[in-house]
Amino acid sequence: MSDKRYMLTPKSGLVLEGGGMRGVFTCGVLDNLMDRGVRFPYTIGVSAGACNGLSYMSGQRGRAKYSNIDLLDKYHYVSLKHLIFKGNIMDFDLLFEEFPQRIIPYDYPAYAACTERYEMVTTSCRTGRACYFEEKQSPERIIDIVRASSSLPFVSPISYVDGEPMLDGGISDSIPLLRAQSQGFDNNLVVLTRNRGYRKPSKPTSVPPLFYRRYPHLREAIRHRNEIYNEQIERVERLESEGRLTVLRPLKPITVSRIERDSSRLLDLYNEGYACAAALDFIAG
Predict the structure, then answer these.
(1) Going by DSSP bridges, is the β-strand pair 187-191/12-16 parallel, antiparallel, or unpaired?
(2) Which of 43, 66, 243, 285 has its CA 20 to 30 A from that of 261?
(3) Strand partners, 222
(4) Strand 117-124 to 130-133 pairing
(5) C-beta contacts of 238-246 below 8 A and 24+ residues apart
(6) How many angstroms separate the CA atoms of 20 and 28, rounded?
(7) What one-character DSSP code corresponds to residue 188?
(8) CB contact at 8 A, 273 and 28
(9) Each residue's pLDDT tens digit, 52-110
(10) Which residue, among 229, 167, 179, 236, has the nearest Cα to 202 in the 3D structure?
């Protein structure tokens, strides 16, 4: 039996950080949870975390791994070629149309039938603030939300949800722990995609003048993203040290980049995520 335990209660929340292709760590965690039948009353995901969390909510074990690792080798959907010819570092037509509809179909009825709550995070271009969406009935709106949550600044076009311009949820709320707590879930398991002690550079992010001129609040949010992220990480580590939070994260600094294309590195990180989750004992409370 592991020394690390987590008690599942009606106040349990699962918080999934993004991180682009580093999210395969989260895929491993979620596949282990599905293998053990572990469900949370509330889950919230950002960017890659939102994408991978959808497969967890529908109970499609292995789907996120297959799309992030196996199909990457086949379709090469992360490429500078896509940025040049489509204005997006990733082939969103493939990821958010072909994959869920035809290549690796998403089980919308299973998602609609699940009783647990699921929120996805985006950033409003107009306000620069986080937006939190729940949607189970409309496949089209689900895709709009997860596409927006995954639309990285500078290398992805602006997406729209309900006609409102949106970008990556990680700009405004990379680790939405406070959101989970505000919804009444104070017994949280946080899945991170960086090792303990990681911090982003302290200097503000430079936003070139040609980007997002119509959205000054978005520009400010991007500029201060590193500062906000580091504050969130410090809060997580403090609460973890106080025994008020459980965290699963890579054990050592990882070499996988946000737009990693080496499937062997991705598989290693997936396996680490699976092993980290397997070492956590879940107890019904």
Answers:
(1) parallel
(2) 43
(3) none
(4) antiparallel
(5) 239/177, 245/177, 245/188, 245/190, 246/4, 246/6, 246/188, 246/189, 246/190, 246/280
(6) 14
(7) E
(8) yes
(9) 999 999 999 999 999 999 888 888 878 777 787 778 888 888 899 999 999 999 999 99
(10) 229
267/154 Cα distance (integer angstroms): 28
Whether 27 and 191 have beta carbons less than 8 Å apart is answered as no
- Give the model confidence (pLDDT) of 214-258 as tens digits: 999 999 999 999 999 999 999 999 999 999 999 999 998 888 777
Comparing C-alpha atoms, which of 222, 188, 217, 197 is closest to residue 207? 222
Q: What separation, in Å, do the N-terminal and C-terminal C-alpha atoms of the chain show?
A: 18
Closest to 247 in 3D by CA, of 176, 203, 195, 192: 192
Collapsing DSSP to helix, strand or coil, 228 comes out as helix
**Pairing verdict, β 187-191 and 159-161:** unpaired
State the pLDDT confidence band at 18, using cuts at 50, 70 and 90: very high
Burial tier of 123 (Cβ tally within 10 Å: 0-12, 13-18, 19+) = buried
* pLDDT reported for residue 152: 93
Provide the whole-model pTM.
0.94
What pLDDT was estimated at residue 13? 98
Residue that is written with structure tokens 């997580």 in the block: 236
Question: H-helix or E-strand containing 265?
Answer: helix 263-278
| Inter-residue contact 215 to 123 (CB < 8 Å) | no
Residue 185 near residue 242 (C-beta atoms within 8 A): no
Q: How far apart are CA 87 and CA 151, in angstroms?
A: 11
C-alpha span between 277 and 10 (Å, rounded): 20
Q: Which residue carries 């987590």 as its tokens?
A: 6
